[in-house]
Design brief:
alpha+beta; 4 helices; Nuclear Transport Factor 2, Chain: A; 7 strands
C-alpha cells in the first residue's frame, strides 16, 4: 500500500507542476540581454600614420627593380628614373644577363631603412638577396652575394609624382 500511495503522490505532483512550469514559460516578460545593445555610433578607426609620398615612391621603385631582375625587362623601373645614369647601367647589365636565353635567379632588393636628407634626397639602407646569373645552358655565369648597401637617391618632382634623378651606390 505504501508503494501505491507514493506512486499516486508522484503522479499528482507531476500533474500539478507541469501546468505551472508551462505557464511560467508563457510569460510576457522578455529576457533582458546581459550586455549593452550595439551603439549606433560608427566605431572610430585607429590612428593611421601618413606615408610620405616620396617614401612610397622609393618602395615602388625598388619593387620594380626586383621585378626587372626576375623578368630581364628593366623598362618599368627605367620609366621611373629617366636620366639616372646608374639606373641605366643596372638596366644594361640586366638586359645582358638575359641575352641568348640567360636568366637571373633570386635578387630581391628591399629597402630596410630610408632617411630623408633634404627635400628630395634620401639615404637608404638597401638589402639585396643572392643572385645567380645563369646562361642558356643553366651554367652559372656569376653569383652576386647578398649584401646591405648604402644608397643615396635623389628624387625629382614629375607631374603629381616623382622620378629618380640619380642613384649612388656606396
Amino acid at each position: 500500500m505504501i508503494g501505491d500511495v507514493s506512486r499516486t503522490r508522484a503522479a499528482l505532483t507531476a500533474l500539478f507542476l507541469i501546468p505551472v512550469l508551462l505557464l511560467a514559460g508563457c510569460s510576457d516578460d522578455e529576457p533582458k540581454p546581459k550586455f549593452a545593445p550595439p551603439s549606433s555610433e560608427a566605431p572610430t578607426s585607429p590612428t593611421t600614420t601618413e606615408v610620405d609620398p616620396q617614401a612610397a615612391f622609393i618602395d615602388e621603385f625598388f619593387s620594380e627593380v626586383t621585378n626587372s631582375i626576375s623578368s630581364g625587362d628593366p623598362t618599368p623601373f627605367l620609366e621611373m628614373a629617366p636620366g639616372c645614369k646608374n639606373c641605366q647601367v643596372i638596366a644594361r647589365n640586366l638586359s645582358a644577363a638575359y641575352e641568348d636565353g640567360g636568366r637571373i635567379e633570386g635578387g630581391r632588393w628591399t629597402v630596410e631603412s630610408a632617411t630623408k636628407s633634404s627635400e628630395s634626397e634620401w639615404s637608404l639602407s638597401l638589402r639585396t638577396a643572392e643572385e645567380r646569373w645563369l646562361d642558356a645552358d643553366d651554367q652559372v655565369v656569376k653569383i652576386v652575394d647578398p649584401a646591405t648597401l648604402q644608397v643615396s637617391l635623389l628624387l625629382k618632382p614629375a607631374g603629381s609624382g616623382w622620378t629618380v634623378q640619380e642613384m649612388k651606390l656606396g
